């Protein structure tokens, strides 16, 4: 029983961290991994999703629908941002860093001015379960399931749907796709919008468990970048194993050496991975380097 | 400061010739007259301004070194470092630790300043070696450097306990290290303590002028030309027989040393250094200054940095909460409308008008 | 949600107040200028906006009643954006350029340490109106916030008596958390209890799965939560959804960031906080204060301990200037050294301690109920900031301008 208890505890911790990494990095993986745009406003799309979700939920919408609304709104905002700003910067990836940072500043401070410095939370649903004398939040288990569902859904979308094939073609060889009659501008917009919507989804999913403040996106951003970078360009080959490995490292270090080493370990890992595997895990797994 | 184009035999002349060249904007008597006037105006500034304004101007000058260093790395060598604050913070702490242990007598603070810059520069050299010899490229440089500065921040933030001390100096965690002496010059009849005021201002102004002219010479020399060539086409440069990694590493170390100079001066200025000076927000600031001014020119970077620093401070004083929004908007406008940087745009425009007037 | 008020408006309101109210009644000496450096944007804005309002309220009341010693009060307000550098810039500005007579400044301890060398350099006088980790022994600083010995020497023994001797501490991994945890450890040991766990969380961490398990693995009777910042506040929601179910004790929550108002019940239920003021306190003086506050700032989300401290500090300053007959700092310190600078304000009677220039407090034990309403099971009156004085800090004799901690106390005299 004690063994089962500690095994479950470890699995739960691992799954919890894994889910956090996967969910928070999915949007970034699409935008950075596929489009090559470093989106420093990733955290603000997450915040947008969380705020919309919380408002919708308090307005009486059931939580799953509220989360969906949050994701859709964030996606719509993302498409507008792409049209107005990002579209002009595809040839200048370093400039897109500055532009998205500018957007992030405006969003954070704008929300602070308009909506105030905090927003009331909505509370975590579903309660807890008891395993071997310790209690665990059920909602966290739902989040783990969501993470797996998200990976599966994205895989289907990008590899087994017409949209996915065209999106990948557009991003890999834009001129060729354009010559073949693809409306590349629209595809870029949709892909960026998808990335923003995934960020919004992350915000919606974590909104019930977190403090709602305009700067809440910042707590996601380091972890998501680390995961995407360790994963490398191909999000499906890379991001899932990257999240798994990082979750193992982080959960392990946190369990045995405390939160400080969990934080630092994550950052050191990314430095080492970039040094040893410049193409990230996916580059290595596919036997190629950039 | 007129410089003849015909190369005479003297080394010094060749050296000075490099004050202007293809890698820096501005040439000819008109430009140098403008520079001289600007320097003279800056030197006369304390005569007309009150004590606070002068001390505040000195504070702005402190940051220009980090900006110029980033301009070398990012604008000239084409490598975006997101972690200049790592060298800034390390040097700041180094200055604090050294001065708290050695004291301020005999000009030891100056020694501490030099040592801090050396430490920061060496750290940049090591990180640069690690990255460039590991063939890390592009945006990944940004992510590695950012990770380095965040690791330092996270680590320093928890060093509040009494066990974290180096000699007399307590690191003091997130609250920051304080109590170190300001820069102190040994002088006959008593040391001169450089509190923020005219004397510190003149020291910094001198340092800025020397750094600026020195960097111009460096950038127009063979070294600078190779850096720009690497930015434009690393493969071709490698084919021509240059060791690209070595040049990038050296440029990175130079940029790091300049960031370290800013860090040590900042610590001496405020007698205070904190881990948050290595955090995400602080790390992004130098990039903003350099981008808004114009990263590909050292003059534009210098002017841009001072304008942005002063502008944002004014915004904070008078625009209050809206300061950050205006700041974000400014970044967007710069990137979308004047991607070369606002100062570079303005300078190009001026140059065009000037030439038209001549012809 | 209420909207935040731009500083500019506050500034102008302050200036206008001084002008309108002041015109006929005041003497010719000119106004007393008070610098206010608080974070009105950035991470800390939620807890600090109200401090500015409290100072504005106090300034209005003082001006309406004829000013300080016949001179009107004029506020010089800057937004420090939760950024230490802004404190350095603006502290120099208010002291050198605006030439204020006194400064009210700072939320985080880091910001205080950032501006303190500058106050010392110009020999200014600054009020730090925040609850903090204690230990600042500096002639140029007057601290009105509560310190650990006031909050923990009351809270911890009471909790141990009520719930049991096994204590788990969860603290933010920086100066405030580490020093507070040290106090908790010491007081638990003195009272014959056991520390069953102690964990430090880096600032900015928002995921607490492992921590929650660690707590559940021990036989803790209650958890001391010394968590700071919006990210770390996520702990309560996560602990509640995992049904940790242990009583919590804290010195920072509720009284500062009004978490019980912001979070959904019952995530903070069974939290016990020692605070020197919160708006729920049910005394006539407190009710009157809240009423006056809301008359001037109807949208104020919450009046926290820092707001009360800022308000009290204004009135203490008024009293000291009037007794000294001047705004000269040495004269003010001489008044303070007499040891009877007291004020009967919204939080009860408080007095300044001449040795440490800290303030005595009435400490209220606030309990968060299941529906996040507040009750007060216990009140301790006149709790003194004794530690610095006992450890050897005596500002009436010398001024070390240092911050001490229990593990690095003042050098023996």
TrEMBL record, chain A:
Pfam families: BPD_transp_2. It is a multi-pass membrane protein. One of its GO terms (biological process) is amino acid transport. InterPro entries: ABC_transp_permease, BCAA_transport_permease. The keyword Cell wall biogenesis/degradation does not apply. CDD domains: TM_PBP1_LivH_like. It is found in: Cell membrane. Keywords: Amino-acid transport, Cell membrane, Membrane, Transmembrane, Transmembrane helix, Transport. The chain crosses the membrane at residues 18-41, 61-86, 98-118, 138-158, 187-206, 226-249, 256-277. Its main location: membrane. One of its GO terms (molecular function) is transmembrane transporter activity. GO terms for cellular component: plasma membrane. Belongs to the binding-protein-dependent transport system permease family. LivHM subfamily. This is Branched-chain amino acid ABC transporter permease. The lineage of its organism: unclassified sequences, metagenomes, ecological metagenomes.
Automatic annotation (TrEMBL), chain B:
Its main location: membrane. InterPro entries: ABC_transp_permease, LivM-like. It is a multi-pass membrane protein. It is found in: Cell membrane. It comes from marine sediment metagenome. PANTHER family: HIGH-AFFINITY BRANCHED-CHAIN AMINO ACID TRANSPORT PROTEIN BRAE, HIGH-AFFINITY BRANCHED-CHAIN AMINO ACID TRANSPORT SYSTEM PERMEASE. The keyword Transmembrane helix applies. This is ABC transporter permease protein. One of its GO terms (molecular function) is branched-chain amino acid transmembrane transporter activity. Keywords: Cell membrane, Membrane, Transmembrane, Transmembrane helix. The keyword Transmembrane helix applies. The chain crosses the membrane at residues 30-48, 60-79, 86-104, 110-132, 139-157, 200-219, 246-266, 272-292, 299-318, 324-350. GO terms for cellular component: plasma membrane.
From TrEMBL, chain C:
The keyword 4Fe-4S does not apply. Residues 31-371 form the Leucine-binding protein domain. The keyword Protein transport does not apply. Keywords: Signal. Gene3D superfamilies: 3.40.50.2300. NCBIfam families: urea_ABC_arch (TIGR03669). This is Leucine-binding protein domain-containing protein. It comes from marine sediment metagenome.
